[in-house]
Amino acid sequence: MDDLLSTLSTRLVSLNPTLLTTPPPIIEETNGNDICYQNPTVYCEDLYFGMRGVVGSWFLSPVRIISESFIVVSVATLIILYFAANNNKTSGSSSSSSSSGSTAPSLRPPKIMQILTTIMFTLQIAYKVCGYPGKILIMVMPCNMLWILNMVLCYYDYSKDTKAGNNGAPTKTTTTSSYHKLSHTILQLQCSYVGLILVALANPDFSDTVLYGEVYFFYLHHFFLLYYVLHYVFITRQISTYIPMQNDGEGVIDGMSNMGGVIDGVKISTKW
Predict the structure, then answer these.
(1) Four-residue CA torsion sign, 130, 136, 138, 141
(2) Alpha-carbon gap, residue 183 to 185, rounded angstroms
(3) DSSP secondary structure letter of residue 51
């Protein structure tokens, strides 16, 4: 087993041999001799302005990365298979209830939130494109990915999912099944990422926020991400992280009854 881990770790390091074993100092310590990359040597002062704070490194040993990745992927795969199996068992009852005309309230954000989301996303892209080379890759960071998901939430076209009625015309529904599943998943991710948003606000990293107004935008877009959660959990009460209550095998929860109310008198099907 040790030989296998050693071989895999060697191959992993070979994918990017330029990284150091520890992160380079964010502030110059040796008067121009701080090294940010090796093989060949690249000095930190030669990097683009703002790039130094995001230089990667082998902060964890390659053996630990491989070991923990194997454990995490294995556990995550088992969890996915478990929920996928349960979802298949209830798909029949869900489809029958949806065909009977039951609908769920739309989770699309209000128009003002759609406009603000578009502005925030546009500014995110602008700051990344106008920054140092490769800064656009920062968009895959958790909080930035939430803006991509919010754009999907705002502008996903679910008209193609609308079922035709008896006369061939589209049925008039509040929202469609596929859009409700997608939007509910996105909003649940928003809830689970609240901790990271709060950490970013409590301990901000401004090492690469060097463009005009970028520091103010950092706070603004994180606070707006928090508002997304507040809007759906506490204002409209359309999203809950409570475990759904069973009701005659249909998996229907009485809206947000655990929080003191029902969503417009509509019962929400929480089993997809």
Answers:
(1) positive
(2) 5
(3) T
pTM of the shown model: 0.65
Burial 191-222 (b: 16+ CB within 10 A, else e): eebeeebeebeeeeeeebbbbeebeebbeebb
Which residue do the tokens 């959990």 mark? 233
Query: CA–CA separation, 208 vs 234, rounded Å?
Result: 34
Which pLDDT tens digit goes with each residue over 12-51?
888 888 888 888 887 776 677 888 888 888 888 888 888 8
Contact (CB, 8 A) for 158 and 178: yes
- Please report, in angstroms and rounded to a whole number, the separation of the first and last CA atoms in the chain: 41
Per-residue pLDDT of 145-192, as tens digits, reads 999 999 999 988 765 555 544 554 445 444 456 777 788 888 888 888
What is the distance between the alpha carbons of residues 137 and 101, in angstroms, rounded to a whole number? 44
Tokens coding 236: 């409209």
Q: With beta carbons less than 8 A apart as the criterion, state whether 45 and 34 touch.
A: yes
Q: Which pairs from 27-34 meet CB under 8 Å and 24+ separation?
A: none
Report d(CA 220, CA 217) in Å as an integer.
Answer: 5
**Alpha helix locations (H) across the chain?**
2-15, 62-99, 111-130, 142-155, 177-192, 194-202, 214-230
Q: Is 155 left (phi over 0), alpha (psi -120 to 50) or beta?
A: alpha
Rounded-to-integer distance, Cα 40 and Cα 18, Å: 7
> Residue 230 is which amino acid?
L
Greatest CA span in the chain, whole angstroms? 78
